[in-house]
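Study both lines:
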Amino acid sequence: MRKIFNHPFIPITACFIAGLLLSSFISVPILHIAIALLFTATFILIHKKRPLILIVILLILFGMFRFQINQLQPEHHIAHFIDHLGIEKVKIEGQIIEEPVVSPDKITFIVKLSKFEDVTVQGNIRLIIKDKYSNTVPSYGDHICYNGTIFRPLKSNNPYSFNYQEYLENNNIHGLSYLYKSDYAITKESKNLYYFLIVVPRNWIRARIDRFYSSKYSGFLKAILLGEKSSLPSQLRQDFASSGLSHILAVSGLHTGVIALIFLTILQIVLRNRTAARILTIILLIYYMLLAHAVPSVQRAVIMISLVLLAKILQRRVSTINILFAAAFIILVINPLQLFSIGFQLSFISVFAILVIFQYLSKKLNPLRENHPKIFWLLNLVLLSLMVQIALAPLTIYYFHTLALGGIIANVIAIPLISLVLPLSIFSILFPIPAICAIYAAANKLLLFIVFAISHFVALHRILLFDFLYLNDSQVIALYAVLTILILLWKNTDNPKIKLYKSLSFSILIIAILIIPGLLRERNIEITILDVCQGDAIVIRTPDLKTILIDTGDKTIRRDYGELVVVPYFKARGIKEIDLLILTHPHADHIGGAQAVMNNLKIDKVLLPRCDYESKLYDNVLTFIDDNDIEIIYADTSLVFVEFEQINLKILHPTYEYKNETNVNNYSIVIKIEYGDLSVLFTGDAEKEVEAILIENWGNKLDSDLLKVGHHGSNSSSTLDFLEYVSPEYAVISVGTKNRYDHPDEEIVERLDSSTDELFRTDRDGAVIFLYGGNTLKIKTILSEREVIDCDI
């Protein structure tokens, strides 16, 4: 307990975070929290003893109060009425409060609203101008006026997908607006102090980087110096992620520490006064933080370094772990939503690992320092990288479903090189003589070439790269709890045998945390109809953990839904193998994502319709299947799938003899799956002709609890007779929002509404998940957050 009080910001920050979390889960009126906070504070002040429990309660209440304050919005804030806005364009006015980010086909920036159709309004929106022919770019501070619409960003529409709405709201952005040409007016150019002190120097730094470095290196330098990743080449970003070097792309403690050291060294030489040099270094670091867009990692680093320098100025003892928690407390008081930011979590856990685990273990290597200094520093680098990787592993798996342990090796070379790259980058940009700048830049390019080569080599050969990993919330919390307890026990135990015993015990506990949830999993059938816009992609997970994928979504010039939706879903679930891939028919909206799926997952068998269809996409899919020796099964109603023991999978169409020269949709493989009392019918894009054949061949055997509606709800399918024979309790239309085909047809929607208990649509509900076991069917939608429990299947 005494050690805790030596680091007071640890309990202070922990209690404050508890309050933030409590308030995020439980809605308590802010007035009630304020009264409780005031009452507790008054009680503590008038009592001399000041019970510890009351101080804890006070800090928790403060966290709850701060979170609720952050949620309050003014009366005229856009968040209050954005859901009630129509699709009609209206006059929108505001001021640009972020430097526009220019891409090849669009310009993006933040607008602080002032008027909406001549009505005063507040709040920030992100405006995206999609005009690749535009020659003009608005500037920070400009007042802009345009005719458009504002809508709320979408939440997650698929399981485990990125929640764009939450991300924007955490950054105080509450709406999106699009212009499809540069049809706007700049009503006033307003340049404030921030523009001249931050924006102008930032533009100058960018120009200097572009002057001395090619695009291969300039995007990287803008990322590590200014926190701007928009111009990073996608291949470079992927290489750094796969090689465990992603942290280098962020303006982190390493970068800020090197920059602080440069500032401090130069100022001490020039001023010959340590106190003055430290004060000026703090000021320059705060200025640099603003230049680097004040991202969480640079905020944390600047606050920590500034507090260390301040302690030196005041001649106070420095506790780095206390300073780390103080930095966290300051950042969260300013913006409580940073707690839910991936960057904030990764930044603080990595530094915590360095200060607590690495420093403790590094002391054990001190005997090597004098006799074997090179081995000492090499082992320290390996140990540093290893400890950070271990500490970040649960979060990395949880968020990214991958673990790049190759970074343990790559960092040994990359970190020393980056420590040289940073000062060389600064000198090459800031030195006033261009010829000398070019020399610095040439040396820097050589180092960057080596760093890029290392990351590419490790990524290319997938050295110690593990993907398709999965951890749930409870497992992540349990793992960090176990690691924390293990650290405390290690630091408070001197006996090596006891340490070994405790380590083995906790290792077994960690393994149990990872394995037991899978062993305790209920053996249900799970059917997930993914939202792949105007297309189909359906994942079936059987009770014995076999996987069936029906179709793979569309592939257009801009989007490959196999790559964007289907593969990430499988990675998030930790599923590496598909036992049966069913491509119902060869239209792009059903097979477009097949190549991405087959490139990333092991496919045992592919079920195809027996039809001739010419398209480059379909030819590529067939070539890939042939080149990789994947077994092809051609659909026929006589097929029996013995590999799926616990479910009955039956092909209802097409028969071996079926021919249709004019309509490929009618080659769609129609499948019925039965498990227990649950029956599900998947019809692909089968149209009325096939529905009539199904009625003739199968009659009352078509009866199903769940129907995946044919052809995206168009009027070419779902006849009254067919729906009468199927008699579904639940139906799902897989369809894209505002698609060019005007699917689903209104008459079909009315027909389905009247013939089913519940109708789901992926354009409104997002992905739809059906989980059946123990005679109970649970239905959950991702976007609309609907839930249905049916105990009468």
In short: The mean pLDDT is 89.
